[in-house]
Amino acid sequence: xxxxxxxxxxxxxxxxxxxxxxxxxxxxxxxxxxxxxxxxxxxxxxxxxxxxxxxxxxxxxxxxxxxxxxxxxxxxxxxxxxxxxxxxxxxxxxxxxxxxxxxxxxxxxxxxxxxxxxxxxxxxxxxxxxxxxxxxxxxxxxxxxxxxxxxxxxxxxxxxxxxxxxxxxxxxxxxxxxxxxxxxxxxxxxxx
Length: 192
Fold this sequence. Notes:
Elements (H helix, E strand, L loop, with lengths): L1 E5 L7 H10 L6 E5 L10 H13 L8 H8 L2 E5 L9 H10 L6 E3 L5 E3 L5 E7 L10 H13 L3 E7 L9 H16 L6
Parallel strand pairs: 1-2, 1-3, 3-6, 6-7
Antiparallel strand pairs: 4-5
Helix pairs in contact: 1-6
């Protein structure tokens, strides 16, 4: 099962367009979480205490740990996140806090080193940006660090379309090129 995390606020999101294109290449079941349709609790002391207790109990249906259990069980993770303010939308950070749960998506070794508990061996990160200012270093880099350092997800890949809103840019050509890279990575024929 593919877990598709949609952090795109706009209906006509170019990031979502790329993610949908990527997902059209699979026959696997897709479970989508549209982050803008979710209501995350405030991460205050009560939330942290309840989440820790529910995780210890192994209660995978409690709202504070269900996202983490879904994430840990997925075969493949796909994240669609537009590039905003040197990173990704804040709602994605809230979601990542919801899934980064001790004894669900990772555990600590006796030496205090995180060890991944996620089933997925790969994570795909999809981003678009109006400018061309290294977004992979800010959003993708952060998610890759979590994937490798905490969740045990060995492979991450990035698909991006950058510079879409720069004066004189051919946004359609940039999107076609990004789709072509997806085709190459998935073994499909090039986009016309």
